């Protein structure tokens, strides 16, 4: 099945695409826990090889509470992405509400240590009405 990327941001030739899905089998709605999985594809359309150094996420739940997650790399990796290539990874996000959102940015290192801050597009997290 081909993944449908619903959200896209482009910064200096770095394309970040996001597909997000609610996972009822990973959620415990009766306990107030909803869970989403998101697939990120980072495409390097620039003319230089880039290494993903850090990530920054702003996660907002349905109550308006904000969590910030930042650190090195993504899912334990700091991938090097050559021009014309891409890197995919999958991760997840639990929330205490059936709705919320995520957005953020990556910092890449390019030629001679140049840093590029690439936006991760805003995307909603929404459980189907029947799920909660």
Automatic annotation (TrEMBL):
InterPro entries in the record, alphabetically? ApaG-like (IPR050718), ApaG_domain (IPR007474), ApaG_sf (IPR036767)
Specify the ApaG domain's residue ranges: 8-132
Q: Which domain of life is it from?
A: Bacteria
Task: Name the Pfam families for this protein.
Answer: DUF525
Q: Which PROSITE patterns match?
A: APAG (PS51087)
Query: What PANTHER family has UniProt attached to this entry?
Result: OS05G0170800 PROTEIN (PTHR47191)
Q: What is this protein called?
A: Protein ApaG
